[in-house]
Write a structure and sequence with these properties.
- It is a single chain.
- The protein has about 70 residues and is mainly β.
- About 5% of the residues lie in helices and about 45% in strands.
- The protein has one domain: Immunoglobulin-like (Sandwich), CATH 2.60.40.640.
- It is flat and about 35 Å long.
- The protein starts with a strand and ends with a strand.
- About 0% of the residues are buried.
- Keywords: Signal.
Length: about 70
């Protein structure tokens, strides 16, 4: 399972996202998840990590078109 986050610079908000960051955890398929409510009442699932626990995986950056 991957986590998708859009990364924007100061001007990125005007022209769209600069790149997409894809984080793939080594234990993403077996990692425990916690449900959290957002401000608008929707429920989202997020990976659960404990203090001192190691995190490993791979980060992929996909850059968009350069204007």
């Amino acid at each position: 399972m991957s986590i998708f986050i859009l990364f924007q610079s100061f001007l990125g908000g005007f022209f769209g996202p600069i790149c997409e960051i894809d984080v793939v955890l080594n234990d993403g398929e077996t990692r425990k998840m916690a449900e959290m409510k957002t401000e608008d009442g929707k429920v989202e699932k997020h990976y659960l990590f404990y203090d001192g626990e190691s995190v490993s995986g791979k980060v992929n950056l996909l850059f968009g078109r350069i204007i």
